[in-house]
Amino acid sequence: MPGFQDIIGHEQIKEHLQKAIEGGKVSHAYILTGEAGMGRKSLANAFAMTLLCEKGKSEPCMECHACKQVMSHNHPDLICVTHEKPASIGVDDIREQINDTIMIRPYSSYYKIYIVDEAEKMTVQAQNALLKTIEEPPAYAVIILLTTNQDAFLPTILSRCVQLKLKPLRDSVVKQYLTQSLGIPEDKADIYAAFARGNLGKAIHLASSEDFQLLYKKMLHLLKHVKEAEMPELLEFIRGLKEDNFDIYECLDFMQIWYRDVLMFKVTKDINLLIFKEEYNTINDLSNKTGYDGFEAILEAIDKARVRLDANVNTELALELMLLAMKEN
Fold first, then answer.
1. Model pLDDT for residues 91-123, shown as the tens digit of each residue
2. Which long-range contacts (CB under 8 A, 24 or more apart) does 18-25 make?
3. Separation of alpha carbons 127 and 154, rounded Å
């Protein structure tokens, strides 16, 4: 379990939390928002461990009894709220695990900390039950809500919490972590970083994902042969992707990154700016054969396919229109 210094990026959030600890101005309620894999749990755990640490500094010592209890997930004053129903956190979950226990003073620390993961799953009744506690909390209580979507919260909850939003990391930061900490070759790290869009957890997952390696091969094959392949063949290929349960949105991401690479190379002729460096010959060839407006039309067609899929247009129809644009341009 990391301390603040072990967490990559999110400097502003770390600084905010550490200053609150140093100045004795810790709020009773926080919302940490960001997509899965971005580090919400790591930040919440580092904050909790620092608050409970016996040394009382702005970084956990990792050595005292309290830090060791947090690391082994059995500190009596750190409560991770659980829920039985996968789809929702009900009013009983909040009452039993927070409201009914919050007035019991901490066992061994100054603070008593509650972490609610997937907090966007709280029902309106659960949020209203929590609101009563957030409005009049005991001095030692800290409630941390982790969410991928803070729009799911009642305005009254939002107004009473300190809201901290995790921003995507720079690709260079993600790449550096992959190459230096995980020993991933640079050319591969470029690709994982591009696909992760600033989400370190996602980049780490992609690096070890066999599914992604397979998607990579299949999509490269499609993009290299889209011009000469017949339409029925292309549609058969798309059907195959669906049958093998590949995420169609990930396929669109792949296409977008590929064509941006080709367009970037057409403009700059700089191989170092490429994400798909290994495919230099194909990219060079494509950049010479296609005009700027051709690339614009293709990227627009990919965007349109995404909009159509969001609007529940038939998948094959949406992708057929996109593939036609790719062939024509």
1. 999 999 999 999 999 999 999 999 999 999 999
2. 18/50, 18/58, 18/59, 19/58, 21/47, 21/50, 21/51, 21/58, 22/58
3. 7
**Residue 224: closest CA among 260, 259, 200:** 259
Whether the Cβ atoms of residue 146 and residue 119 lie closer than 8 Å to each other: yes
SS3 sequence of the chain: CCCHHHCCCCHHHHHHHHHHHHCCCCCCEEEEECCCCCCHHHHHHHHHHHHHCCCCCCCCCCCCHHHHHHHCCCCCCEEEECCCCCCCECHHHHHHHHHCCCCCCCCCCCCEEEEECCHHHECHHHHHHHHHHHHCCCCCEEEEEEECCHHHCCHHHHHHCEEEECCCCCHHHHHHHHHHHHCCCHHHHHHHHHHHCCCHHHHHHHHCCHHHHHHHHHHHHHHHHCCCCCHHHHHHHHHHHHHCCCCHHHHHHHHHHHHHHHHHHHHHCCHHHCCCHHHHHHHHHHHHHCCHHHHHHHHHHHHHHHHHHHCCCCHHHHHHHHHHHHHHC
Residue entry with tokens 């200053």: 19
pTM recorded for the entire structure: 0.85
Rounded CA gap, 84 and 118, in Å? Answer: 13
Alpha-carbon gap, residue 103 to 315, rounded angstroms: 53
Cα distance between residue 97 and residue 265, in whole Å: 56
Which pLDDT tens digit goes with each residue over 294-305?
Answer: 999 999 999 999
Q: Which residues are bridge partners to 112 per DSSP?
A: 141
| Integer Cα distance of 44 and 4 in angstroms | 10
Look at the alpha carbons of 239, 240, 246, 252 in this order and tell me if their dihedral is positive or negative.
Answer: negative
- Token pair, residue 131, equals 């609101």
In contact, 5 and 58? CB cutoff 8 Å: no
